[in-house]
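Researcher: Let's try something more involved. This one mixes different molecule types, so please make sure each is placed in the same coordinate frame as the others.
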Amino acid sequence: MSNGTAPSISGLSSSVGETVTLKGWLYNRRDSGKIRFLVLRDGSGYLQCVVVKKEVPEDVWESSGLLTQETSFEVTGVVREAPRQEGGVELGVTGLTVLSVCHDWPITPKEHGVDFLMSQRHLWLRSARQVAILKVRSEVESAIHDFYHSRGYTKIDSPILTPAACEGTSNLFETQYTEDEKAYLSQSGQLYLEPACAALGKVYCFGPTFRAEKSKTRRHLREFWMVEPEVAFMEIDGLLDLAEEFIKELTTRVLDRRKDDLKRLERDTTKLEATATRPFTRMTYREAIENLAGKGFPVKFGDDLGGDEETALTEGFDTPVLVTRYPSSIKAFYMQPDPADPEVALCVDVLAPEGYGELIGGSQRIHDHDLLLARIRQQELPIEAFQWYLDVRKYGTFPHSGFGMGLERFTAWMCGVPHLRECIPYPRMLYRIYP
Amino acid sequence: MSNGTAPSISGLSSSVGETVTLKGWLYNRRDSGKIRFLVLRDGSGYLQCVVVKKEVPEDVWESSGLLTQETSFEVTGVVREAPRQEGGVELGVTGLTVLSVCHDWPITPKEHGVDFLMSQRHLWLRSARQVAILKVRSEVESAIHDFYHSRGYTKIDSPILTPAACEGTSNLFETQYTEDEKAYLSQSGQLYLEPACAALGKVYCFGPTFRAEKSKTRRHLREFWMVEPEVAFMEIDGLLDLAEEFIKELTTRVLDRRKDDLKRLERDTTKLEATATRPFTRMTYREAIENLAGKGFPVKFGDDLGGDEETALTEGFDTPVLVTRYPSSIKAFYMQPDPADPEVALCVDVLAPEGYGELIGGSQRIHDHDLLLARIRQQELPIEAFQWYLDVRKYGTFPHSGFGMGLERFTAWMCGVPHLRECIPYPRMLYRIYP
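Model: All components are placed in one shared frame. Result:
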């Protein structure tokens, strides 16, 4: 028996009048004398199934009375229009078989502590809110692939096991690669994308990245997914356009295709709609610190911007804000200096509205071999480990640019969810690796 | 300056008669007196650029004479039809600017040793053969996402950092998660998909997996990408259909869209075309060992099938072969026994033709709590580590099935490339982690 072509709840609106058989779990049940209203969930949606005592065989009525939350069952019935129901249909039940009765389902409607829910993550996933968030996440992933694939990018899977650190050696997970050699879990695929964009022009990677941070804030995961495009011959202005176009396309896709999920999450989509349609605000770091000074923040050139500053900067804007040209001193060693203002780098941070923080960080890369070498020396990074990276500048060098975007941060913003831990199926945080 | 809308070689056939400017690297050059034929590559394709001395300014002629392999340059000219050229066009050059001359490009046409090429992987990627393989790989990835997304699957990213082993503790990379706790790099996302398919019905993961194997064969990578679907209420027959449909769709996509790359790889596509269109052969393990006995292999029930046996089994078939119902004793603990033949498991291995080995391994999973518990005990696995996995069977259990397919193995077969190391951008093998 296969369910390859089995009907699912999400496709039922085209089956009105037909008899269908569905399998899933009981999400909710309401008894009203001689009628029972069962809500079946099958992962694709939720369906009200109406059991009327006098219309079904006695064993069906009896079975429907056994259903507890998360009991798996098979139900047969006639699909009928029900405009007030999600999906516009409900099922008039004619048959019902209990597959496995669920006893003592641990996730009850009462408020659970976060620790409890996290330890039950494998079950908590079944909650309607978690299902909605994970569907938005999956839609964003699909939109990311479509965005790059339709534009002729080649996906280049950067390695996770790396011999050296991309941006220093702190916060790295370490493993013994062979008896004599250690490896570190990648924090970014960028260094590996740069040689690949010399081969393929436009490339991107999208996979897990790792930070062994000791931080416990809602903004940090130790394992998270990041998408990183890298484009040969693209300079900073092209990069800003790419970042804006990218966020617009992803946002449009979520608004178009995950409307029901956003509704279930009670997401106010005003700012998402603005993001999908209106040009983003762009400002330089120098403009940003002036703006912040006007708002009472004592920020001076050379200071990094923290979460409060980022939130203050985006106040009053309905779309993300592109902050460009940060001081080189507070940015990564590989960023191209601005020829018109050598203290700053040709870089960008894209800040989400509504306090969701940095969505994207990117830059034009240094393409002059000797300048890059000087920077590596200045940061006291091990030159031999970066030899292959320097080679990109040795053989037919070229300007190029790229950025990174964290999937969970973006998903959190789409969903209006404050905690990243709900935006990944199995979050990995400090003191949290089970299940 | 942006290249967001810059023309690329792959799109030139619609620009015949137009003047375009392109950037890229010199792939090849042939001088014929007062005419120079330059082959420009930009990652999207290859373009013959014709420089005629008497038709260009002297500095353009001079510049074209400086071009060495992998020199980056910008070229302007008129697109014209050239039926014998790849893409059907060539460029009549009117302007040319050298961006960066490449000296001593290390990868020459002479035969290099594998060790040398692997140590130059970041440059070797620019070779036409490597570009073609990586484009096929990327196309397969895109087809994988489209296959599942269009069928309503939700992508569930299984964690890489896991507290315990999926199938025993051997061959695991280990890392210190916190001061007191170790973590291991995932070998499979399956265990994490099973609870997720109870939430979302149809799910898949697709990401890197890790095996700290000591093996040096051409069939082994220590880090490779695996796609794994998992479907609630799907049983073994549905799984076989899903696997066949999946391979058919990916193969069709590669044949349709990567024709030029397959040609460059001199791939004989006869068996790929058969795979795309003809039903796959299916046989049980019991039939397989009879078949092998007839071919002189001394295999008896309970023996695992090695590479030679797999190759022998697929001989004479143009499509992959599905071998089902292996003895439970040689398969993973979580596989559902066949009620009609309890010595065997409801599982499948899909073997590629042409000696490319196992593409897919999958099974229906044990959904009875007590049977699974007995198996975990029998294998002496730590029960407390599997408590959450057992919970899937405790609360509204349901039949479910899934499989895993290695991306590099599939790509190798598509490309007709014997070594997996060429089918991933930066291979990780024993004694090979650089670059």
